[in-house]
């Protein structure tokens, strides 16, 4: 039975403790992602605009607070920042659930509470990235990130079904109450963590703004960091709107609506699970070369959606891109954690969240009007024509090609027994 448990969970006890708490929280997030729009629509007079407003309230705080979150994750113990974030998110989700269950929720209530939730999220994410090397050995980072990704991918497949069942059984308010409980469980596991102590010599010096500038310097001084960040930004701003905005619109117009699109989303989730399993089992020595190639494949999603003749074809190809997305992001996160100094890791990671989650609402807002102006399919084709060359260009960057995975740690050699007299 023990062999069925990934080695990183058997050998890294602190990571195992962290992982079990986070696994439930991540599944709760996947459920909440599906439930919240229905919770908004259950409010009298609410429609698509209100759903978008509540969604934006969750994401926009990354634009405002991601960089600050990175700085404070290095000024304070990361574990404490994450614990505080979990407690804040527990309270906000519990309040949302209470308002919905009480039948008194208004759209403005959800906008305010989701903005607080998103702000806590903006502090949690950089702290979590910086914590990983303190609870996982360098040779196990890829496995640890892949295992976290596997839970998220599984949630992508199972989340809609679980959310639908919970909405039927306990309503949106009850489903969000369970998500709130998942943050309380995560906080309980975090409180019991004992991560390795960071080197006191690595403690950041100077005031808040000085550390903010140092974080920017850490990013621009590494070609492989800023070039990959640029490509990932294009993926989030240009490609992902094809999945979140234009794909559903095309499905509604030509393929039968939400039921057909859910097949595509599920297929992508299955592909992501496969990609995470590959990253969990296969050691990749040149991680960013593989990540860049995988990002180029992932950037074909808009073309697949626009050119796919039927839903089964689109779903099959989206499954392939799901494999690529899982590999790209696991290898990117692992590379940051392995090669960026511990003292700067949260600040560097905060730029990742700023340029991905923070800028994605811009792409979501622009995609619809552009498609209305130039046409749905031409917009989808243009997305791919722009994004794929950017991803492939990473392969021309020497620092990308030369970056290596951490060397595996050799098992200790037993001391020879003394010769008999």
UniProtKB/TrEMBL annotation:
TM segment ranges: 18-41, 53-73, 94-116, 150-169, 223-246, 258-280, 287-307, 313-332, 353-374, 380-400
The record's listing under CDD domains reads:
MFS_MefA_like (cd06173)
The answer to whether the entry has keyword Hydrolase is no
Q: Name one GO molecular function term.
A: transmembrane transporter activity
User: Which keywords does UniProt give here?
Assistant: Cell membrane, Membrane, Transmembrane, Transmembrane helix
An example of a Gene Ontology cellular component annotation for this protein is:
plasma membrane
InterPro entries of this UniProt entry? MFS (IPR011701), MFS_trans_sf (IPR036259)
Membrane topology summary: Multi-pass membrane protein
- Location of this chain's protein in the cell: Cell membrane
Gene3D superfamilies in the record: MFS general substrate transporter like domains
- Report the protein name in the record: MFS transporter
Task: Give the source species.
Answer: Catellatospora chokoriensis
